[in-house]
Amino acid sequence: MEQEARRTTTLKELEKKYSLGEFLEEVARRHETVTVVLDEGGSVMLQPVPALKPLPALEGSVPEGWKDAIY
After folding, report:
1. 0.70 surpassed by pTM
2. What total number of domains does the chain contain?
3. For residue 3, what are the domain limits?
4. pLDDT interval class at 1 (50, 70, 90)
5. DSSP characters for the chain?
């Protein structure tokens, strides 16, 4: 399994280099976790979520009246 890249940066550094959209696209494209240190001393961690694969189409049928059955 591929190890996820991690980095830490400050809000001021990000504002100089990127727009918000550009930054989020880069984080998603690189599959990296980024911790952004805020001016007030707090921090925010951004982590991309992997795209879900579509569900498979299954063969078969549902019998008529299945909702009316007692289970």
Report:
1. no
2. 1
3. 1-49
4. very low
5. -PPPEEEEEEHHHHHHH--HHHHHHHHHHHTEEEEEE-TTS-EEEE---PPPPPPPPPP----TTGGGS--
Q: Is residue 14 domain-resident? A: yes
Whether the CB-CB separation of 13 and 23 falls below 8 Å is answered with: no
User: Residues, the chain, total?
Assistant: 71
**Which of 27, 28, 29 has its CA nearest to residue 9?**
27
Four-CA torsion 61, 65, 66, 69, nearest 10 degrees: -150
Structure tokens at 37: 């240190």
Encode pLDDT of 12-31 as tens digits.
Answer: 999 999 999 999 999 999 98
Distance CA 35, CA 20 (A): 15
